Amino acid sequence: MTASEGTILQAEDLTKEFKGFFAVDGVNLSIKRGSIHALIGPNGAGKTTCFNLLTKFLPPTRGRITFKGQDITAMSPADIARLGMVRSFQISAVFPHLSAIENVRIALQRQRGDSFDFWRSERVLNEFNSRAAELLADVGLTEFSNVQAVELPYGRKRALEIATTLALDPEMLLLDEPTAGMTPEDVERVAALIKRIGANRTILMVEHNLSVVSTISDTITVLARGKVLAEGNYETVSKDPRVVEAYIGGGHG
Question: I want to staple 63 with a disulfide (CB 3.0 to 4.6 A). Which of 13, 46, 206, 239 is the partner?
Answer without folding.
Answer: 13
